[in-house]
Amino acid sequence: MNGTDVTGEIIAKMHEDASGIPANIHEMPFFKEQLEQMNMIPCGYHRYYYRTEEMLAHMLEEYQDPAIGTRAEQVKQTEAELFELYKDPHLDHKPEQLSKRGGAHYSDAACETIASIYANKNTHIVVSTKNNGAVPDLAPDDVVEVSAYVGATGAKPIAFGSLAPAEKGWLQVMKNMELCVEEAAVTGDYGIALQAFILNPLIPSGETAKRVLDELLIAHKDHLPQFAEKIAELEASGVTVKDEIVRSLHPIEQA
User: Fold this and answer.
1) Which DSSP symbol is given to 1?
2) Are 117 and 150 in contact (CB under 8 A)?
3) Angle at Cα 177 formed by Cα 175 and Cα 181, nearest 5°?
4) What is the largest CA-CA distance in the chain?
5) pTM of the predicted model, to two decimals?
6) How far is the C-alpha of 52 from the C-alpha of 59, rounded, in Å?
7) Phi (first) and psi of residue 43, to 5 degrees
8) Is 218 within 8 Å of 188 (Cβ atoms)?
9) Which of 82, 99, 118, 119 sits at 20 to 30 Å (Cα–Cα) from 32?
10) CA-based torsion, 167, 172, 175, 180: positive or negative
11) Which residues, including other chains, have CB under 8 Å from residue 40's CB and lie 6 or more apart?
12) Residues tagged active-site
């Protein structure tokens, strides 16, 4: 508020106390030297990119424990319990399961955004909106999640400026991966979908990326009519869905 940069102090505190880490993200600290060099505070989900090895090991541990399961299985189980609770018209308290779902305070942000648009409050809110040059390392038409002033005419993103090489590299790789996914979803172009999987740093490139894509297409074929021809070709060639993917489509069993 008074113009004093306290980023360094926050980084130091982050390595003294793990409080503030979302409940749905494994507690794995960032490398302190990396944050000090960046002089920035990463989103909690950046752990999957900056500490991929450790996060994967933790996820595999959860996967191998039927009582825990993968994050997707956990969320599906939680949502099933929540929808059952919501059937009760007399429910008058916040279900404990919501704390496990993630997305805390999203409702507050949504309500404040609606109020700001209606009353033209020009409130400072973090929203996903058209870039319009706020982040010059991305195209003007790209959607970005940034601080913006929200009023009756919509969101006016606050200009941030260019990023340093490391952060710019991550940002551009992930945005272009997303753009490939979107184009593939609209067109049913298998080649561009494969490009997205190869671009994604969480998927080993080469045969593994292709195998993951092929199995996911078959597993979700009922929802992917735009890929029907390619899926039929994959099935005819003998591609099958592994038990791991089949399991991920169903909620975990209660221990």
Assistant:
1) -
2) yes
3) 115
4) 66
5) 0.81
6) 10
7) -60, 150
8) no
9) 99
10) negative
11) 7, 167
12) 45
Alpha-carbon separation of residue 229 from 26, 74, 215 (angstroms): 39, 33, 15
Both tokens of 7, joined, read 């980023």
**pLDDT tens profile 108-135:** 899 999 999 999 999 999 999 999 999 9
Looking at the chain, how many residues does it have?
Answer: 255
Tokens of 12: 């130091």
131-179 confidence digits (pLDDT tens): 999 999 999 999 999 999 999 999 999 998 999 999 999 999 999 999 9
Q: How many C-beta neighbours within 10 Å does residue 171 have?
A: 16
> How distant, in Å, are the alpha carbons of 4, 43, 163 from that of 9?
11, 17, 21
Please give the average per-residue pLDDT across 37-44, as a whole number. Answer: 91
In 10 A of CB 25, how many CB atoms?
16
Strand pairing category for 123-130 and 154-157: unpaired
- Check if the beta carbon of residue 13 is closer than 8 Å to that of residue 32: no
Give long-range contacts, CB 8 A cutoff, 24+ apart: 42-49: 48/202, 49/170, 49/201, 49/202
Say which residues have a Cβ less than 8 Å from residue 208's Cβ, sequence separation at least 6: none
**What does the block give as tokens for 42?**
């990463």
Radius of gyration for the alpha carbons in the chain, expressed in angstroms and rounded: 21
Contact status, residue 148 vs residue 164, Cβ threshold 8 Å: no
